[in-house]
Amino acid sequence: MTLTAPRNLSIGDVLRGYLALTKPRIIELLLVTTVPTMVVAAGGIPGLWLIVATLIGGTLAAGGANAFNMVIDRDIDAVMERTKKRPLVTGVMSARAATVFAVGLEIVAFAVLAIWVNQLSAWLALSATAFYVVIYTMWLKRRSKQNIVIGGAAGAVPALIGWSAVTNSLSWTPVLLFLVIFIWTPPHFWALAVRYRDDYQAANVPMMPVVASLRRTTLEILVYSVILWALTVLIGPTAHLGWIYAVSSTVLGGLFTFYALRLHRHAREDRADVGEAMRLFHFSITYLSALFILMAVDVIVRNH
Predict the structure, then answer these.
(1) What pLDDT is attached to residue 7?
(2) Which residues pair with 268 in a beta bridge?
(3) Looking at residue 29, what is its pLDDT?
(4) Closest by alpha carbon to 218, among 188, 258, 261?
(5) Tell me: domain 171-304, CATH 1.10.10, correct?
(6) CB 39 within 8 A of CB 46
(7) Whole-angstrom Cα distance, residue 48 to residue 53?
(8) Is residue 83 a contact partner of residue 75, using CB atoms and an 8 Å limit?
(9) What phi, psi does 53 have (nearest 5°)?
(10) How many CB atoms are closer than 10 A to CB 237?
(11) What span, in angstroms and rounded, lies between the C-alpha atoms of 47 and 69?
(12) DSSP helix/strand/coil, 268
């Protein structure tokens, strides 16, 4: 592992480095599933302070988990082209400083959620961090081709937190919303892994496109996409959602499956269309955001 020594770092450089540790772009996607879930749980728009406190606590918890991930994966990040500019690789801060930062974020996150939201939400956030750091990052990522399949559970917990923040309980609806994100994660991430297959191979990470043929990988992406489509359509009656969600889930699921099918049709055993993979990856982000936002819109329109 090669690390670049810090040179003449400004306060701005250091602050940007600590911000980068939290992976803010990933956090944005997690939060866009939290608020709509709160709307569904409340049957309308929850109190502003509850939303703010939940988002602050969730952001800090996710940021701490991502910082732990960068500390543990700094050897892999130094090898991969996509991650070689991360702050622990370039030497913006030490691993010890990053660890202290991560611990601090988790402590504050738990306190915010426990004091201003509820204990259940606080423990759910802490469990998501533990799962992501220990089960995914420290164990599965380097050992199993199912790493992102099982590890994706951590990224689905915000749906549970959003629901519990409003109701201080869990039920089948938040579990199904959890499953949506859980099933969405493999095709979303494997599409990106197709693009960076050589990176993962160089880092000896057994991501699906590395340990299986690209034809098999794209087939699994397609299968997960179809399952995701079916699941999102079935959620409508269970969560008592209306026609806006029904139409949205059907159209969005059809588009997701269409992009996955195109990726599979262009794939061969040792070759896949990187352009198609990235189109699916980028659309998958739009898909998840739109699905949850339109779910919330459905609830607000029907109840007002």
Answers:
(1) 58
(2) 271
(3) 82
(4) 261
(5) no
(6) yes
(7) 9
(8) no
(9) -65, -40
(10) 9
(11) 33
(12) strand
- Here the tokens at position 272 are 């896949």
- Residue ranges in 87-213 assigned as alpha helix (H): 87-90, 95-116, 119-130, 147-151, 153-167, 172-195, 197-202, 208-211
Contact 210, 141 (CB under 8 A): no
In this prediction, residue 2 carries a pLDDT of 44
Task: Provide the whole-model pTM.
Answer: 0.94
286, two tokens: 């739009």
Domain with CATH 1.10.357.140 in the chain: 14-167
H or E, element range at 263? helix 243-265
Do residues 128 and 113 touch, judged by C-beta distance below 8 A? no
Give the pLDDT confidence score for residue 9 in this predicted structure. Answer: 81
Which CATH number does the domain 14-167 belong to among 3.80.30.20, 3.40.190.10, 1.10.357.140, 1.10.3660.10?
Answer: 1.10.357.140
Contact criterion met (CB below 8 Å) for 221 and 190: yes
Amino acid symbol at 190: W
Contact present, 95 and 88 (Cβ < 8 Å):
yes
Residues 6+ apart with CB under 8 A from 119: none
pLDDT at 145: 87
pLDDT per 10-residue tile (average), the chain, 304 residues: 59 92 88 95 96 96 96 94 92 95 98 98 97 94 90 93 97 96 96 94 93 95 98 92 96 98 92 93 97 97 86
Residue carrying structure tokens 């974020």: 105
CATH 1.20.120 in the chain, residue ranges = 171-304
